[in-house]
Specification:
This protein has helices at 36-48, 128-142, 144-170, 177-219, 243-256, 258-264, 285-288, 291-313, 330-339, and strands at residues 2-11, 14-20, 25-29, 67-75, 81-87, 92-96, 99-100, 113-116, 226-231, 275-280, 283-284, 318-322, 345-349, 362-368, 371-378. The protein is α/β, with parallel strands linked by helices and 379 residues long. α2 (128-142) packs across α3 (144-170) and α3 packs across α4 (177-219). Bound molecules: adenosine-5'-diphosphate (ADP) and magnesium ion.
Length: 379
């Protein structure tokens, strides 16, 4: 798919601005704090329904304005137009091809995007939430059912958490018969939705291992072997072939740990606690990897995600590279851009000379203080 144009109204530091994009590479450049990432954020918003920088969508309403709207026109795919509006009170509405959506979940898959931002450079070193988020964002776009399962899982988790608190503080840790019935019910539902979430993650990681592994070998000139493993309460060697197989051990585990959960005031098991373990040549990358190896691994993982999305959906996502390309040496830039051939790419940078692009149409957008100052196109 290709983003043809983007219209921002009262979005971040943009009052009113239209961008017409190239089908190839779009380089968005300018000094710091001018509004480059804001464009990436708007594109991402249309794909995921939220920002990668804030969970409060209303923060993106321009100061002194009442509401923002972001309008993305696409071509070459099922979606022609996505219009996202949100006011200062966080009241949102989303229209896809002119039809209002009832739930944000319905947006998933309308526009596919792979984002690579500076925060991702901490993919290996940060705590597990960044890695879970990576799985969740990738899978939600490809499989709307995953998004529903995950949302459902998180809702039940919140309910179980309030029961844990109630038992701990109002009942002195004593579980009444009613509480027990409720714990059993929540655990059953958690195991049902959660086992589907875990199974999808396992399948995704298996594919990612292959795709990212191949990219990593290319980036490291075949010297290094990248391995990605799902880290959870499950026996990782069990080779699960369906969510049903995960359900029983999951429910048993949940039912066996209620007392401990009340004691610790936390839900201790499930996809919300899981992680990805990344190894290079059998060594834990987080503990033993060099900066360069970690960076290469993230790059490989992102490119792997792009590859999986293409293969599994038969559609081509847009690629959003926020401030990361100029951080890479010329060889890595070349590998990255050649593996994203035929993928519409958005690159932000402060110095356009540091970005090396050849053989593809490229549009340059110079951004100054929340507006498009100049645009040029090279073939
Ligand atoms: N809600 C908002 N209203 C007005 N300006 C905003 C808002 N949110 C962010 N900005 C401004 O946007 C600019 C940052 O934009 P960003 O795209 O992150 O910059 P960069 O070009 O460095 O990527 C800053 O000047 C910031 O003050
Ligand atoms: Mg930026």
């Amino acid at each position: 798919m290709t983003a043809e144009s983007l219209i921002l109204n009262d979005f971040r530091n943009y009052k009113e601005q239209k961008f017409e994009f190239s089908d190839g590479v779009n380089v968005i450049f300018g000094l710091n704090a001018q509004g480059k990432t804001n464009i990436i954020e708007a594109l991402f918003l249309c794909a995921i329904g939220g920002s990668f920088r804030t969970s409060h969508t209303m923060e993106m309403v321009r100061r002194d304005a009442e509401a923002f709207s972001v309008e993305l026109s696409l071509k070459g795919d099922i979606t022609d137009k996505i219009k996202y509006t949100c006011d200062k009170k966080n009241k949102k509405s989303i229209k896809v091809n002119g039809i209002y959506l009832k739930k944000i979940g319905e947006l998933m898959g309308s526009c596919l995007a792979v984002l690579f931002s500076p925060e991702d450079l901490q993919f290996v070193t940060e705590g597990p939430s960044l890695r879970r988020r990576f799985l969740d964002i990738g899978l939600s776009q490809q499989k709307p059912s995953y998004f529903y399962d995950l949302t459902q899982y998180n809702k039940i988790l919140a309910q179980k958490m309030s029961l844990i608190k109630k038992v701990k503080y109002a009942n002195d840790g004593n579980i009444s018969r009613d509480d027990q019935v409720n714990f059993d019910l929540w655990n059953h539902q958690l195991a049902a939705a959660g086992s589907r979430v875990i199974f999808e993650r396992l399948c995704f990681l298996k594919k990612l291992q292959e795709e990212a592994g191949a990219k990593h070998a290319e980036f490291s000139a075949e010297k290094e072997d990248l391995a990605l493993n799902y880290d959870s309460f499950l026996d990782e060697n069990a080779g699960y072939t369906s969510a049903e197989e995960i359900f029983k051990p999951f429910e048993t585990k949940l039912n066996g740990t209620i007392k401990k959960e009340i004691e610790r005031e936390a839900c201790l098991t499930g996809p919300h606690r899981d992680d990805i373990i990344i190894k290079i040549n059998g060594m834990d990358l987080k503990k033993f990897g060099s900066q360069g190896q970690k960076r290469t691994a993230v790059l490989a993982v992102k490119m792997g995600e792009l590859e999986i999305m293409k293969k599994d959906t038969g559609r081509t996502p847009i690629l959003l590279l926020d401030d990361v390309l100029s951080e890479l040496d010329q060889t890595r830039q070349r590998i990255l851009l050649s593996s994203s051939k035929n993928v519409q790419t958005f690159i932000t940078c402060t110095d356009r000379k540091k970005v090396h692009i050849s053989d593809v149409e490229c549009a340059y957008f110079n951004i100054k203080n929340g507006s498009l100052f100049a645009k040029s196109v090279t073939k």
